[in-house]
Amino acid sequence: RLASEGVRFTNYYCTNPICMPNRATLLTGLYPNVHGVRSNGINLPEDIPTITKTLRKRGWHTAAIGKIHHQFWLGPFKQKTKSAESLFSWAVDKGKKDPVGKNFPLPYYGYDDVEVISGNGTVCAGHYTEWLEERAPKIAEEMKKRVQNYDNLFSLYCDGIPEDLYNTTYVQERTIAFLERYAKGDYGDKPFYLHCSFPDPHYPLYPPKRFRDMYKPEDIELPASFQDAKNLYRHKYLGYHLKNPP
């Protein structure tokens, strides 16, 4: 229904293959070389005009639920710049020094309400972790430990999480809760803008069992080039690392 009654972008092209630059472009309408987020790890300037700031000024209620990624996620490295989406800060700091948890800075790039997920798959932090703590404290503690090793974000598989506790369920539940509040009139007569963003599918690849079982590895036809080792060695990036293993 959303697709049939709304707008679908079926011929969309991006100017940068990386996540953060494109998210910044969608929010600002600017090219990466203009808004400054040329790669992952660069915070979007907080004073830059965004569609959400414009709508908010015109009386809209704005909200973001799920993955936002307008600020860096990196771990416990010395940074002059703070991040409201830092994995390590959400897992360890909990808002004591950094702008996370109760110190989350609102409005955030023009969003009145934010329920953020930093990370992907079974390696996540943010308000999602707080939701998880209420439902499965042990799983929440394991996830906090997991996010402190940044390599886990790029692993092929991590420990599984039940479907009813997965990040997709969180985004779904919190999005429906927002829409129900709006329908009840909690935001008055204001129109609303809602950014609903599911982190997955994304590394680390470990979806709930129901979805893993839908596809059997032996049924997937691999391209002829998959086992072509000589061709891999000719690849500029992969070839170098194959010849110079860590």
From TrEMBL:
Organism in which the protein naturally occurs: marine sediment metagenome
Listed name of the protein: Sulfatase N-terminal domain-containing protein
Q: Which GO terms describe its molecular function?
A: metal ion binding; sulfuric ester hydrolase activity
Name of a matching Pfam family: Sulfatase
Q: Which UniProt keywords apply?
A: Hydrolase, Metal-binding
A single Gene Ontology CC term: cytoplasm
Matching InterPro entries? Alkaline_phosphatase_core_sf, Sulfatase_N
**PANTHER family (alphabetical):** IDURONATE 2-SULFATASE (PTHR45953:SF1)
Q: Where is the Sulfatase N-terminal domain?
A: 1-216
